[in-house]
Design goal:
It is an enzyme of class 1 (oxidoreductase). The protein is an alpha/beta fold and 429 residues long. It has helices at 15-26, 28-35, 65-69, 87-96, 106-122, 140-146, 161-173, 177-186, 195-198, 201-215, 234-242, 306-326, 363-373, 401-412; strands at 6-11, 39-45, 61-62, 76-79, 100-103, 127-128, 152-158, 225-226, 245-255, 262-272, 284-291, 295-302, 348-358, 378-386, 389-396, 399-400, 417-426. A hairpin with a 3-residue loop joins strand 11 and strand 12. The structure holds L-homoserine (HSE).
């Protein structure tokens, strides 16, 4: 084993960074044996230097992240600050000064991954980011490496633990969205400002990263259709139950049937209780991958938290260090396919629509005609009386999302339709 250590700079020492530092210390001997050289924490950049960080030598702490990232003696920079800037500048500077980078920064990768990949390539360094998607669950490496010889056609996943917790509580207790969010906040699953999770931004960034790797195509956050779960009601969940379904916030990345384009989207959807994703409870994550040769694969585990995210960071650190030692490089960006990313309107899906209608002759015919006029075929219709009016629950066959949403608009305009109580896509069948 080489005795001269590989030097690591840690940018950020919050929930994840402090776990990374702890594991680097407690597992130092094993890490050295696995890498073939000791790894030494050479600097830790923080915003608040006065805060006590157990296990971190105060002499290593600095507030000058920029100076740490450009130190010529650093072999690997770990970026766990998050956000776009200064993370982007720090990472590109690290590459320019000879370091490989391990990052957990999903927002930056989804916004501007190509800049990071190009900087890594230009300077002959590695960019690893297993922790950016679903923390400890191995997804990036399986897609980038294990499935590199296969053809991935679809990814269907629960990639946000906060929203899965909220939906799970709504399903198991009958609680409304607000009550379930309050519980998620009290238990520390939801942040004080839960927007990134509940509006689907976090899941959309992960979908962009997964789609990019799976389809060898650059997919950015703006390419991902995004709907959050703030409008989901207890009635939606009850309606799903009546259909033998549950509601999940899904990230779905698909290759079109003709193989010429891809789509990426995040939205709530009903899935049958028989689908394995329906049993992913509490704040767990799970991702289904469908490929030509492997068939269906499912990856399951904790998708957030200090230690699970640090586990993924450490795995990447070992890989980056091994490459440094061998003078080799890990996989770079693979975007050769350059498939166009189609808009949501072209996605083929199914709708579950609850209508509040007048209960009188011809209503069903009028509603059915509206579907037919938009080329949407009905799968099932269920009617339930309601004080002289009725609830009409229609589930469609598969159709382009544009046709389905224009059907809903036309239904809203019918005299006999008092309101569209809920619309939800049905997936996973
Ligand atoms: N806030 C995310 C979640 C974890 O709830 O899954 C970090 O991406």
């Amino acid at each position: 084993m080489r005795t001269r250590p590989l030097k690591v700079a840690l940018l950020g020492c919050g929930v994840v960074g402090s776990e990374v530092a702890r594991i680097m210390t407690t597992h130092a001997d094993d890490l050295a044996a696995r890498i073939g050289a000791p790894v030494e924490l050479a600097g830790v950049a923080v915003r608040r230097p006065d805060r006590v960080r157990e296990g971190v030598d105060p002499a290593l702490v600095t507030t000058d992240a920029a100076a740490l990232a450009r130190r010529e003696d650093i072999d690997v920079v770990i970026e766990v600050i998050g956000g776009i800037e200064p993370a982007r500048k720090l990472i590109t500077s690290a590459f320019e000064h000879g370091a490989s980078v391990v990052t957990a920064n999903k927002a930056l990768l989804a916004e501007d991954g190509p800049t990071l990949h190009e900087a890594a390539e230009k300077h002959g360094n590695d960019l690893y980011y297993e922790a950016a998607v679903a923390a400890a669950i191995p997804l990036v490496r399986p897609l980038r490496e294990s499935l590199a010889g296969d053809k991935v056609n679809r990814i269907l996943g629960i990639v946000n633990g906060t929203t899965n917790f909220i939906l799970d509580r709504m399903d198991s207790t009958g609680a409304g969205y607000g009550e379930a969010l309050d519980e998620a906040t009290a238990l520390g699953y939801a942040e004080a400002d839960p927007t990134a999770d509940v509006e689907g931004f976090d899941a959309a960034a992960k979908a962009a990263i997964l789609a990019g790797i799976a389809f060898h195509t650059r997919v950015r956050l703006d390419d991902v259709h995004r709907e959050g779960l703030t409008e989901i009601t207890a009635a939606d969940i009850a309606s799903a139950k009546r259909m033998g379904c549950t509601v999940k916030l899904l990230a779905i990345c698909e290759r079109a049937a003709d193989g010429r384009s891809v789509t990426a989207r995040v939205h709530p959807a009903m899935i049958p209780l028989s689908h394995p994703l329906a049993n992913v409870r509490e704040a767990y994550n799970a991702v289904f991958v469908e490929s030509d040769a492997a068939g269906q694969l499912m990856f399951y585990g904790p998708g957030a938290g200090g230690a699970p995210t640090a586990s993924a960071v450490l795995g990447d650190l070992v890989a980056a260090c091994r490459n440094k030692l061998n003078g080799s490089r890990g996989p770079g960006e693979s975007a050769y396919a350059q498939l166009p990313v189609s808009p949501m309107g072209e996605v083929v899906t199914r709708y579950h629509i609850s209508l509040d209608v007048a209960d009188k002759p011809g209503v069903l015919a009028q509603v059915a005609t509206t579907f037919a006029e938009h080329g949407v075929s009905i799968d099932t219709v269920r009617q339930q009386g309601k004080d002289g009016d009725a609830w009409l629950v229609v589930v469609t066959h598969s159709a382009p999302d544009a046709a389905l949403s224009s059907t809903v608009e036309a239904l809203r305009g019918l005299d006999t339709v008092r309101g569209v109580a809920s619309i939800m896509r049905v997936e996973g069948e």
